[in-house]
Write a structure and sequence with these properties.
The protein is mostly helical. Helices cover 51% and strands 0% of the residues. It contains 6 helices and no strands. The protein is globular and about 50 Å long. The protein starts with a helix and ends in a 35-residue tail after the last helix.
Length: 144
């Protein structure tokens, strides 16, 4: 009985570490479930899904929120490929190393010259929006 409580506690406290792969995280959960099964203690599928999602970090929050609010019965076997796919998507996004300025949606709404100039160069950005015309002959006195 004490062993079952100890292993259940391991399951409820499991967390995916930043550098840990999703595959390693899921294998760790599966090993805990197998240990519980070996001592005739089963974990309901809904609890297993809950503990798995609970152990994920902030980078998975959107997926976790979506999966917990979709009205469907999700099993651990259904969940695993979704989590592995999400990890691949996150890795691909990080690998592209998109800066905000090169993102197409931001480039559409950026002021002229902002998206096309490279960082660190002098461009129109430093002078945009300033009407500093002193000494250039553009000063008008409306009181004359």
């Amino acid at each position: 009985m004490a062993r079952a409580l100890e292993v259940k506690r391991m399951l409820t406290n499991i967390r995916k570490f930043d550098l840990q792969s999703m595959d390693a995280y899921l294998r760790e959960i599966k090993n805990i479930v197998d240990s519980l099964a070996a001592i005739n203690c089963t974990v309901p599928s809904s609890d297993l899904v809950h503990y798995t999602l609970l152990g994920l970090g902030q980078e998975y929050e959107t997926l976790v929120t979506t999966l917990t609010h979709v009205p469907m019965h999700l099993t651990f076997d259904d969940l695993c490929p979704r989590l592995l796919l999400q990890q691949q998507r996150l890795k691909a996004f990080k690998d592209t190393d998109e800066s905000p300025i090169s993102h197409p949606a931001l480039a559409v709404h950026s002021p002229p010259g902002l998206a096309s100039s490279s960082p660190g160069t002098t461009s129109q950005r430093s002078h945009q929006g300033h009407n500093n015309n002193h000494g250039r002959g553009h000063w008008h006195n409306n009181n004359r």
